[in-house]
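Table S2 (text version). Query chain:
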Amino acid sequence: AVDLFRKDPTSSYTVQNFQEDYISSGVPSLSTSISAILSTDSQTLKVNYAECILDGALHACSDAAALVMRDIAAVQSSVDNMRSQVLQTQGIINDVALSERVIESLKRSTKMMQPVMDAIPWWRLPFMVDDLNHHITSAVERVWCRDLQGVLQFQSGRLSLFQSQLVSDTFVMVNNSPSSFHSALLLNELEQISCQPPIGSTTLIYPISYRLQQLQQSTIKLHRYAQRSTFLLSFGTLGSWGSVYAAWLFDIIAPSTALGLGSLGSVLVLRWFIGKWDNAKTRWWQDWARVGEGLGSDLQVRLFPYSRLRTLLMQFFRKHFLLSYPKKLPVCL
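Corresponding structure-token output:
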């Protein structure tokens, strides 16, 4: 329209077209609006400008907060998965450290061992005294917590796998978290937690082997006591008969008296031998019960590093990733 007006400014047709195009372009309305704004009070203009800036700042804050909440939601989802993995191991720990399981296993072992000890009465002892240690030791190895040993061997492998997996997954979760969750202190604390002693495939079986060695020591003492008692039985019997024979030989006592005294001495020595053997077996059974009572506490001690790792990881999650964030941010208008 401006170009046509410049070419022929005197033509009425050109002037009319220019006016129609100028009005249809909306320039007059824009000029009127701008003039109205510029003619208003300067204080009102400043307020409107400040409102626009404040509105933009609030929207920027809302967008930034929304991004942070998305990061928090992603991290908390990862933490929830890690917590569920940690809590899964609680069932394994409870199963291993269950005192009832240990007690039942000891009861079964005692029930299986009882016939073996009952099969060694005092009258058989002199004929098997040399093989007594091997006989009892082999029986103890066959019956001593065999069912519990299989369970502990299986659970040791599971806990060992869980331990390495938990530590590696935690490092992966921290490294994949948003940069706002990274810090040298956090990684240093996680490194300290991961330095807990590892659980090997034989960690939980060791208490059974250690207690079995203690029982073997008790069996060795029983064997030595049986050898000494058998020797004293033989020496006492021969000494009793030898004494009365010497007394009869020198006509100190009559033959009937010598026979009676010899028999009495043999009976007394035999009664002493029977009592000593019964007391020795009673002490061996007391050692059996004492060793069995310590098995449960040994398992608790062997499980302590893993229980501590589990506790430290839960504290680590609560400290760094499970803070109380608002579920919904206010809407910025």
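Notes on Table S2: Residues 151 and 200 are 15 Å apart (CA to CA). The chain has eleven helices and no strands.
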